[in-house]
Amino acid sequence: MPIATALEPISVISNKRNLEFNNFEKVPSHNRNLKVTSIQRNNKKAKIFKPLNGPKLSKRALEIQNEEFLLSKGIIIVRNNKYHPETNPNGIINLGTAENKLNNVEMLSKINDPKISTVTPEQLLYGPNPGSDRLREEIAKLLNRHFNPKVLLSKENICVGNGCGPLLNLCGEVLFDAGDAFLVPGPFYGGFEADIKYGARVYPVPVQHEKDDCLKVSEEALEEALRNSSRPVKGIIIANPNNPFGRCYSAEQLLLFCNFAKSHGLFVICDEIYGLSTWNDIVTENIEEGKTIEDYECHCDQCQHSKSIKRIESDIDGQSNKFTSIFSLDLPDPENTHGLWGFSKDFCLNGLRIGVTISYSKTVMAAIQKICFLTCIPTNIDNILVNILSDEKWTDEFILNNNRKLFKSYNHLTNSLNAHGIPYVKGDSGFFIYIDLHQAGLDEYDLWMKLLEGGLYISPSQAFFSKDSYEERNWFRICFAVEQAELDLSLDRLYKVLDTLKRNKQIN
Does 49 score more than 90 pLDDT? Predict the structure, then answer.
């Protein structure tokens, strides 16, 4: 089957070329197929609305239906023509979804051990909504070991749920009122838009970063965004490590966010879901005796030939920083500083759907636990996680080995990008980097279509609500937590599309 068959599912996407991704205040569509019927009830005239035909939908649902969400659209396209090395070798390779496939053997071996995953009669019953006491205790111990919080976490600070997306929505329900807004440094993880807006009806207000540093946000920029918001702003939401840039905020920048929030009566939610995938720090700090950092790089023939090629630096690189958990800081307002973490990324368990809310506030945690019956996880998954985390030696070795694999894969990817003259923001965390494809000379949406036609899905900047400007568009997030053969094939497809566009430009 030719790769061009990838075009068939692309028809599900609108052909609009300049999508209004910066319009965060769309008015719900009104159902015009309504008629008003007068009826007599208790001698009073009342009006009821009846649809002429078709299913009934709420205004909220109608609004959601009319919104563009590129991350979901991209995944739909891929699933209709998913790459498989044997059964569908010309299908679309997915390097747009942040999944870590480097540890499948290790994790499956652990989970499928009967000592880990045996289901007991007790697990056939309902479990505690926020997660079992034992699980929350084990999570607290894990985060205390690796995040070094200023005030040690306990089970009382933890609520477990079915993914960070649903838990962010719970935070939206208990911290915001419908129609409120939050400040978020942009470009930002596109899931924040859907996770908290579709349910809690809370809206993002992007804050511009400094021109020369993608993770530096000034107090003036925060003030301007707060002042210009047409909605009441109640909080600040950040991702650290950052998504889509794949690097960490400095401790000073985190404190700037927190101090600004306190001075304006706002709260802070910090998503630290990649906090144990900070591969540059973890590998550098755990070099084995007799080795150097170069020993953990990729030494394949391709990398040996290209490692000396100089990187084209990005204008927005800025300063690289060590990972600092927000809970390790001397927080100015700890009761209004909350966090998210989960097993999807750091433990390669996206499909099991386990997220964690962290808060020092008893009031906030009580409010979350009041409604977390909507997000509780299965009891057998709870038990599996307890058994994994209680084996601290295995857990810590898994984290270290995972980061060594990520470090090597990043090195392999960037050697290749350097050899092909593609600029990128230098990374240090997570599974992805932000690459600059302005050289294609094509509108970002059109280029995205060309890449999908060529059998590769990577996420365009518009999926992260980038500013509609030349500088911010035509960046793409590419994930590298896949086996090397699949990564190489993906890069071959990327370069082929770019070369074809370059040749066509020369002909024309």
Answer: no
